[in-house]
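Quick one before lunch.
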Amino acid sequence: MNTLECIKRRISVRNFNGKEVEREKLDAICEAGLNAPTAMNSRDITLTVVTGERLNRLNSAMKKSMPSSMHPNFMRDGKFDFVRGCKALIVVSFGTKSVLPEQNTGCVMENMYLAATELGLGACWINQFYDFSSKEVLSILCAEKGSRPYAGLSVGYYYVLPTPKQRDGKVVFLD
Ligand SMILES: Cc1cc2nc3c(=O)[nH]c(=O)nc-3n(C[C@H](O)[C@H](O)[C@H](O)COP(=O)(O)O)c2cc1C
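Model of the flavin mononucleotide complex:
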């Protein structure tokens, strides 16, 4: 797949079939993330790949740190599951030396979305880290002092690929 094709094919996938994601694929997605541009090339960035039992612990901690009024949005098969059954979650964090971390996060996340697409995996932006990274969440992520999670990317094999959404928006050429 070439780059332009990959960009057009990328979509957010929110249904995962439980198959484990190979380590080489996770490495490749992280490498793509680390190749993103960042403001002033500030590289105070950590990608934390969470799998296995730690992902269950993170799910419980996230449930606690989120207002209960939000829980219904994350229910799946009668259980709270904020990553919708994915087997791997990549959390993007920036430290205090980072310049424009929110913008950097967008670049890192899009690179990782595209890498997942190329590798035949589904992925979805998980924004809850931005607002609900409690001490317990940070502890489960083994976050270094001052490092703050900005987003997570759920990654996995999917049951069905959703229909792409309409992508409207204006393009204006001026001369
Ligand atoms: C900044 C940002 C935050 C997002 N947060 C979430 C989220 O918390 N949960 C979710 O399911 N999707 C989230 N998304 C995915 C968007 O809903 C999705 O990109 C959008 O609906 C367009 O669909 P597409 O990705 O399939 O093109 C987020 C996307 C962005 C760029």
